[in-house]
Amino acid sequence: MTDNRDPDTPAESRPLPTGQALCAQLESLLGQARRRGADTAEAAISASRALSVTARDRDRESVEYEGDRSAEITVYRGQRSGRASTTDLSAEGLDAALEQALTIARFTEADDYAGLADAAEMARDWPELSLYHPWALTPADALERALTLETAALDHDARIHQTEGATVATQDAVSAYGNTHGFVAAEQASRHALSCTAIARESGGMQREIAFSQARHADDLDDVGDTGRLAAERALARLGARTPPTTQAPVLFTPRVARSLWGHLVSAISGGALYRNASFLKDCIDQPIAAASVSLSQHPHRPRGLGSAGFDGDGVATRERALVAAGVLRSYVLSAYTARRLGLANTGNAGGVFNLDVAPGDESFEALVAGMGRGLVVTELMGQGVNLVNGDYSRGAAGFWVENGERAYPVENATIAGNLADMLRAVEAVGNDVEHAAMLRTPSVLIGGMTIAGR
Known about the structure:
Elements: H1 19-35, E1 40-56, E2 59-77, E3 80-86, H2 91-107, H3 139-154, E4 160-179, E5 184-202, E6 205-215, H4 224-237, E7 247-253, H5 255-268, H6 271-275, E8 296-298, E9 321-325, E10 328-329, H7 336-342, E11 356-358, H8 365-372, E12 375-382, E13 392-403, E14 406-419, H9 420-425, E15 427-430, E16 440-441, E17 445-453
């Protein structure tokens, strides 16, 4: 929502419930579920509040406040289950959701794989993750920073005519999960962000680019001025872009776009895709699936990590885990349910993965560019042309063309195509330019011999 109140108006003033309060609600709800006929049950409650302020054309564009509260309860009667959710966290609202879940469970088909994760797998203790660092940011403070952010972009070069907005945002959240094994726990977390999209114009051409920073602690954010200037520099670097030739050539993914490549890999080794036979990596454990330079690991207990958690969505303990080691697939990504479907051990990944790291190589980004000779450096990807069933890959791309190991010209309206299985095996090098401000930390990745479609 856009709010035109005075910028000194305090943000969402209703305090968040404490983790202790949410745990008490869960214990009461789970007890009610057992007393009313559920064999087992699990539930989650969350609450968050956020402030986002955007500046545009050197003035305030919007002040947005958000406050969300939700709960979900799942009950099991034998192998039948019922699930219901609500945004009403009052005793009456939670009771109504429970009754709805119990009713649904009476009519659903039995599922042999349904149920809580094993009690022995519940998280017992985990290190302090340092995820909650609220930012005492008033709307006026946020607006001042947003204006500084935009001004840095606009004043960087005369060819930066405007922005699509510069935003400063902060969010605090608390969530709790519990089940009838006796596991009940809460986590409190904050997330802060800066972003700016700059628009550059020259000789009738226009290009836009974004710079973004996010962190658990405001002190870990990039400088607002540096972020604005980076957005401007990226937009300026795209001026004069043209379509590259159609050819076969190496493709260098910068860290921003390399994340999507590893995201496709994680999706392909996730339980849902595997048990539905919708993955090109089914039955590949302990087999080489990528070049030996590729290693991917999970680190759920990283302090201030954007993907840190002590337990997964089933209450199962999270652990450090090698997913790919020297090109060999070592682990799938499974929840209690998908592990049962596949007849495999639970990996504690209900809800996804937690802080992934791609191991860096020795070469700098500049060395990778010089070493590729002729090819495409990709800084932006567009479209969703990825088929995880067979690995086929085709996406729109922008970036810059390389000739004789040097940057030649900016590129737009290109398409890169291949097959994910082939692409992973064709990784020629990974850089040492890891971007750390992300849940998935990766350096640049050089892939040999992709199809580049252009003019």
